[in-house]
C-alpha cells in the first residue's frame, strides 16, 4: 500500500523519510539561532556601560549613607577605577554649580579663606566668569587626585604594601559621592539660612574624612598602628595643595 507524507502529501516508498522534514528542521534551527542572536543583542543593549555606571552610581549614593563600609568595600576597588573618576568629576561639577548659584553668599561668608576667593570681583557681581568656574573645577579635581595619589604613595612605595593607585582613586570617588549629595543639600540651605548652609558643609567635611579613613583602613594592608599617621599625612598634603598651592597657581 502506497504511503504519503502527512505534511506535504508526497508519495513515499517503504521506509523513506520525506525531504520536507529535513527542510523544516533546518528552518527551525535557523529561526532558533536568529532568536538567540536577537535575545543576546537585547540583553547586551540593556546592560550597556552607560547603564551600568548610572546604576552603580545610584547604588553608591544610597549605600554611602546606609551601609558606608560595605559600599566602600564593594566599589572602592581597582575594577571601579573609571566609575571613581566619573564620581569625582560629578562632584567637581556640583561644586562649580554651588559656586555659580551662590556667588554672593560665598563671597560674603567664605572670604576669610583668602586667595581662593580673592578674585578681584566685588560682592555685587552676580555672574562668575567661566574662567573662574573652570579653575574651581580643576582645583577640586586636583584635590581629589592628590588625596588618592598620597594614599597610594604612602601605603604602597613607602610602607611596601600591595596598594593600588586605581583602587585609591575608586575609594576617593566613592567618598566624593557623599560630598556631592551634601553639597546639593547645602545649596538648598543657602537660600534658607547661611548658618544652616555652613553647618551642612561642616558635617559634609567631617563625614568625608571619616568615611575616607575607614575605607582606607579596610582596603590596604597598612599596619593599624601606622594607619592614622599615614592617613593624616595624606589628607594634610591634599589640604595644602587645595588651600594654598593650587589657588596660587590658578588664581
Helix and strand topology:
Blueprint: E1 3-4, E2 11-12, H1 19-46, H2 49-66, H3 68-75, H4 81-101, H5 103-109, H6 130-158, H7 165-190, H8 194-219, H9 224-250
Antiparallel strand pairs: 1-2
Helix pairs in contact: 2-3, 2-7, 3-7, 3-8, 4-6, 4-7, 6-7, 6-9, 7-8, 8-9
3D architecture notes:
It is a single chain. With 251 residues, the chain is an all-alpha fold. The chain has one domain (68-250). 76% of the residues lie in helices and 2% in strands. It has nine helices and two strands; from the N terminus they run E-E-H-H-H-H-H-H-H-H-H. It has helices at 19-46, 49-66, 68-75, 81-101, 103-109, 130-158, 165-190, 194-219, 224-250; strands at 3-4, 11-12. A two-stranded antiparallel ribbon has the order 1-2. A hairpin with a 6-residue loop joins strand 1 (3-4) and strand 2. The longest helix has 29 residues, at 130-158.
